[in-house]
Amino acid sequence: MAAVAAAATSGSSSAGDESKTGPLFDDMFDVLRVNPEGKKFEKVNRLVCKGTTLDVDMIVDIASEVYNLGKDERFSLRIASTLRLDGRKDDDAFDQSGRETLLDQYDYGMCGRVFQYDIKGSKVALMVSFGGLLMKLEGERQHLAAIELDARVYALFRKAKSAA
Predict the structure, then answer these.
(1) What are the pLDDT digits (tens) for 106-159?
(2) Domains of the chain by start residue, with CATH
(3) Does the CA dihedral 14-135-87-100 come out positive or negative?
(4) Closest among 85, 78, 88, 77 to 13, alpha carbons compared
């Protein structure tokens, strides 16, 4: 079962419908550094990551007691506007039906809101808060254009299978 961190924020999402757009963002990342400025919180790691396919940099806080990633590990990240497999918008209440969701396909997930979106030429930097855990994504505008300011989003993580 997937681990989930951060409480869902209330309100409706301004992001597009997943059934029409697919994921808002999807790439593999390599962890370059863990806690580069020292460990600030006992149960949180700050990861500095680099996209392997798209030229996107990411700094993300992870609840390390729940989900741990180390230096040189690879993982996939999907940013989605809904957890529903049919792509329809989520209700604002927790779904207790037990039906399968997108989260079941991942190891760890967080729900949050995009609170900052800066455009500088062809580059975009956006910030997402997941109940206090933060994520910063920076890259070419074309790769991050589907993510909108004030959108409720899910960040879904899955460790890459190692080649044995």
Answers:
(1) 999 999 999 999 999 999 999 999 999 999 999 999 999 999 999 999 999 999
(2) 3-91+100-159 (2.40.50.140)
(3) negative
(4) 88
